[in-house]
Amino acid sequence: NVLLGVSFLDINNGIAVGDNGTVIRTNNAGATWTYLHLTNNNLNAVSLTNISYCFVVGQYHTVLKLTDTTWTEYYQVGTGDFYGASYNTIVGTDGQIFLTTDEGTTWVAQITGAVKKLRGISFVNSDIGTAVGHNGTILRTTDGGNNWITQSSIGRAHV
Fold first, then answer.
1. Distance of alpha carbon 78 from alpha carbon 59, whole angstroms
2. What is the pLDDT of residue 116?
3. For a surface tag, which of 44, 91, 94, 158 has the fewest beta carbons within 10 Å of its beta carbon?
4. How far apart are CA 56 and CA 86, in angstroms?
5. Confidence (pLDDT) at 77
6. Is 31 helix (H, G, I), strand (E, B) or coil?
7. Secondary structure class of 134 (helix, strand, coil)
8. Measured between alpha carbons, how far is 5 from 62 in angstroms, rounded to an integer?
9. DSSP letters of 55-87?
10. Residues paired with 98 in a beta bridge
11. Planar angle of CA 34, 17, 141, nearest 5 degrees
12. What is the helix (H) or strand (E) element at residue 5, kind and residue range?
């Protein structure tokens, strides 16, 4: 299996996700990993924001919520695939950005149509976050996703 995303809450607790519904979890800094499974869809990203609460996103608008050891699967969020998750925000195809304020019961579209695909998102706290995607798209919020400002990239970096 190919692992596509990883998130650590602290030095010990982490989750990695990947193709064919692969979800592995550690609580001892990776010394051992426990395999969990709910879907056969590829899972692209995970956001572990506290010990008993995280979101996993993937293809076919799959959004999974983990509460302790119970998985709940949501198929009614947006369209297409999701590629990034951070805090309570997920991003995906068609420039979709969705936010939940009730631990995943409902999802509110923050922005759509910005780019073909948003591929990643990172929040440093509940207010400040950056989403990135195709064609060098960079979007930034400083108010928890209520408003997104397009930032420009300076071109290709050569390493």
1. 11
2. 65
3. 158
4. 10
5. 85
6. coil
7. helix
8. 14
9. EEEETTTEEEEEETTEEEEE--SSSS-EEEEET
10. 90, 109
11. 130
12. strand 3-8
3-class state of residue 35 by DSSP: strand
Query: Tens digit of pLDDT for each residue in 21-66?
Result: 999 999 999 999 999 887 899 999 999 887 777 899 999 999 998 8
Contact criterion met (CB below 8 Å) for 47 and 91 = no
Structure tokens at 156: 């290709």
**CA 24 – CA 61 distance, rounded (Å):** 20
Between CA 14 and CA 74, with CA 42 as vertex, the angle to 5 degrees is: 80
Q: Cβ neighbours of residue 80 under 8 Å, at least 6 residues apart?
A: 61, 92, 93, 94, 96
The better pLDDT of the pair 114, 149 is held by 149
Q: Residue 145's beta-bridge partner residues?
A: none
Q: 20 phi and psi, to 5 degrees? A: 55, 35
Q: Give the C-alpha separation, 48 to 14, whole Å.
A: 7
Helical spans, DSSP H, in the chain: none
